[in-house]
Design a protein that fits this description.
It comes from Terasakiispira papahanaumokuakeensis. This is Metal-binding protein. Keywords: Signal. InterPro entries: DUF411. Pfam families: DUF411. By secondary structure, the chain is of the alpha/beta class. The protein has a single domain, classed as Glutaredoxin (3-Layer(aba) Sandwich). Helix content is about 35%, strand content about 25%. The protein has helices at about 5-25, 40-50, 65-70, 95-105, and strands at about 30-35, 55-60, 80-85, 85-90, 110-115, 130-135, 140-150. A seven-stranded mixed sheet has the order 2-1-3-4-5-6-7, sandwiched between helices. A hairpin with a 4-residue loop joins β6 and β7 (about 140-150). The longest helix is centred in the first third of the chain and has 22 residues, at about 5-25. The protein is globular and about 40 Å long. The protein starts with a helix and ends with a strand. Mean pLDDT is about 85; it is low at about 1-25.
Length: about 150
């Protein structure tokens, strides 16, 4: 196959644009809000980064005010709150569920793991408690299990 210079440049440009668009789709930045004193929040951020996410961590003194600003229901609260591509992520939600959320794009407000269950990402303590990742929608005030994780 013999390509002239113009055809070769067009193909190269096409490959570059294809690569740029797929990286934009696959990579959102997580904005995480946490207490300056919480270590498990940083461990969750490390889990997310190890799975390919970029995490910007914001240590704030009044995390509850941020949760209220974002509309996080009190019964879903955990130690940190995050945002990615318009979705709220509350607590120790595993990276694979965040990726599934971004792949499927359901019409919900976000995902939450209430409390701080042992064995969830960032809470690796040698124990594994059963926990549920919940999908929640603030507009319709709905809450439903999204994924369950068993105890060991």
């Amino acid at each position: 196959m013999n390509l002239n210079r113009s055809q070769a440049l067009r193909q190269l440009l096409g490959f570059m644009l294809l690569g740029a668009s797929s990286s934009v789709i696959a990579a959102g930045v997580i904005e995480m809000y946490k207490s300056p004193y919480c270590g498990c929040c940083s461990a969750w951020a490390q889990h997310m980064e190890s799975m390919g996410f970029e995490v910007n961590s914001h240590a704030i003194n009044d995390i509850n005010a941020k949760k209220q600003q974002l509309g996080i229901p009190a019964q879903l609260a955990s130690c940190h709150t995050a945002m990615i591509e318009g979705y709220r992520i509350e607590g120790h939600v595993p990276a694979r569920e965040v990726q599934r959320l971004l792949d499927e794009r359901p019409n919900i407000s976000g995902l939450a793991v209430p409390g701080m269950p042992h064995g969830s990402p960032g809470m690796e303590t040698g124990r594994q408690e059963a926990y549920t990742v919940y999908a929640f929608d603030l507009k319709h005030r709905t809450l439903a299990p999204y994924q369950r994780y068993p105890s060991e």
